[in-house]
Design a protein that fits this description.
It holds the Pfam family GT87. Keywords: Cell membrane, Membrane, Transferase, Transmembrane, Transmembrane helix. Belongs to the glycosyltransferase 87 family. By secondary structure, the protein is an all-alpha fold. The protein has one domain (54-486). The chain has helices at residues 22-25, 27-32, 53-71, 73-82, 86-89, 95-102, 127-138, 146-175, 183-188, 190-195, 201-216, 220-233, 241-251, 254-278, 280-292, 300-306, 314-338, 345-359, 368-378, 382-407, 417-443, 449-452, 476-489. Helix 3 (53-71) packs antiparallel against helix 8 (146-175), helix 14 crosses helix 15 and helix 18 (345-359) packs antiparallel against helix 21 (417-443). The chain is globular and about 70 Å long. The two termini are 36 Å apart.
């Protein structure tokens, strides 16, 4: 163990370490590469042309985003405006055009300060998302029919969300430096393209991805600031501070953790405090709406409610969901302290956000965007990722077919209630499957594809290669005895081989 008051030097990475090439280590990636010429050769010159991984992946991500826009074309031309059911049968629904008029942007109302007509008295989104929506409204021409304005509003938002998509792809690609091509998982994720323009979640996802990049570079304060901004756009990013707490506890990195928390609190207050002071009712609408909202689409609570003669109340679900999230966090903490090797930050971040999603009383289809970057960093294995994505695409189609069924009157076009319950179950099982393989990687580090390739925690920043100072259970004794060896020789996760052992070719 490092003596008290003495900071352990950062691990020195081998200067000649080669980037990991997925087509050499992943059978699914190798098979898929046959479409573009096959796996990369031994003598390929990487990074010597303009086509670097970052640029390629950013362009692929933008291309997939554009395909997602094309998928929304039937709604753009008519379904958003003339047919409630057809926007579901074409699976092209989006909140964006509907809320242009429904939340007062068409009338020039100021979010949080001006009251809305009807039941929704104020905008029910966090402040930074409200700013994003208002900027798009400024870019929307105020002339022409309301249909024309809503189309332009959707396009203005789509352009801004496309920038967020590029930011996410670049940040994930650069977070794990030796694994840049893992970013293709984000760029090619089908559920990402299908749900990108349903709502404004990509703003928070982009800020969270940028925060993860800053942490991987050892910039704790910048991480905290970006995470605070992300939380000002959507509530879920704040849960990342939980797994970071237990990781910094195990590694004794308290200074960096408190820098991150301080940056997050200050950034969140800078965005929220002005609105809190001058328009408290409008500011608090998001929180009161989230609390008072009943059981909704996509959750296991809905299956329970629709199959019970005595469905759970909103208050019960609020309490139960909170208890379940806390229990999940305690389980993650126990896993962190007792694992044979300290888990990677991305692994715990994925598990924590997944727990938040699985226990929530609502699962909108775009919530999958929260998990995609974290899933890529946590488990960059094409087979497991595509299995999960297939489940999410099935849910994406299931919810729209269910809504088509409920809005088509006596025609009953679409998926009945029991069929929709199966779609929810598929989503839940797919997410649980990915959680299970991540937990297995934590308990069996030799199965972790990131560490098997020779890394320790490339998204961990100051945690990467750090010595453990607090470990519990069976892992405590060997971890303490092996710590000096791990800090020097396994900073890459690559144990030094005895001289007489050859390296396999």
């Amino acid at each position: 163990m490092t003596p008290a008051g003495v900071h352990e030097p950062e691990p020195v990475r081998p200067p000649d370490a080669e980037p990991v090439r997925p087509t050499r280590e992943d059978e699914v990636a190798a098979a898929g590469s046959e479409l573009i010429g096959g796996p990369i050769g031994r003598r390929a010159l990487l990074g010597t042309t303009w086509w670097t991984p970052v640029r390629v992946i950013a362009l692929v991500a933008i291309g997939m985003f554009a395909l997602g826009l094309v998928q929304k074309a039937p709604c753009y031309h008519s379904a958003w405006f003339f047919g409630a059911s057809s926007q579901y049968t074409h699976a092209c629904y989006s909140d964006i055009p509907h809320l242009y008029q429904g939340r007062g942007f068409a009338d020039g109302l100021v979010p949080y300060f001006d009251k809305l007509p009807g039941d929704m008295d104020y905008l029910e989104y966090p402040v930074l998302t409200g700013v994003f929506m208002e900027v798009a409204a400024w870019l929307t021409p105020g002339s022409g029919s309301i249909q024309h304005q809503e189309q332009w509003y959707w396009f203005a938002n789509a352009g801004m969300l496309m920038v967020c998509t590029a930011v996410i792809a670049v940040c994930v690609t650069r977070t794990q430096r030796r694994r840049p091509w893992d970013g293709l998982l984000v760029a090619l994720a089908p559920a990402f393209a299908l749900t990108a323009t349903i709502n404004w979640d990509l703003l928070a996802v982009a800020l969270t991805a940028a925060a993860m990049l800053m942490w991987s570079r050892g910039r704790a304060l910048a991480f905290g600031v970006l995470l605070g901004l992300a939380t000002a756009a959507k509530l879920y990013p704040v849960v990342l501070l939980g797994p970071l707490l237990v990781l910094c506890w195990r590694a004794g990195r308290w200074r960096e953790y408190f820098q991150a928390v301080g940056g997050a609190v200050v950034a969140w207050l800078v965005v929220n405090l002005p609105v809190m002071l001058f328009a408290f009712q409008g500011w608090s609408k998001f929180y009161s709406f989230s609390h008072d909202r009943g059981i909704d689409f996509g959750s296991f609570w809905l299956i329970w409610a629709q199959n019970s003669s005595n469905p759970p109340t909103t208050d019960f679900v609020n309490t139960a969901a909170t208890v379940l999230v806390v229990l999940c966090f305690l389980g993650i903490a126990a896993l962190t302290f007792t694992a044979p090797r300290r888990p990677r930050f991305a692994q715990l971040a994925f598990l924590m956000v997944a727990a938040f999603i699985l226990t929530n009383k609502v699962y909108s289809p775009q919530y999958v965007l929260w998990l995609v970057p974290l899933a890529v960093l946590a488990r960059p294995k094409w087979r497991d990722f595509l299995i999960w994505q297939a489940c999410e695409v099935a849910y994406f189609l299931g919810i729209w077919m269910y809504l088509a069924y409920t809005t088509s009157g006596d025609a009953h076009k679409g998926l009945p209630t029991q069929g929709y319950h199966w779609a929810i179950a598929i989503h839940l099982l797919g997410t649980l499957y990915l959680c299970a393989v991540v937990v297995r990687d934590i308990l069996m580090p030799e199965r972790d594809v990131v560490r098997r390739a020779g890394d320790d925690d490339p998204s961990g920043g100051v945690l990467d290669g750090a010595e453990d100072v607090f470990v519990l259970g069976p892992a405590a004794r060997p971890a303490r005895h092996a710590a000096p060896f791990e800090a020097s020789q396994v900073a890459w996760g690559r144990p030094e081989q005895p001289p007489h052992e050859g390296r396999s070719l």
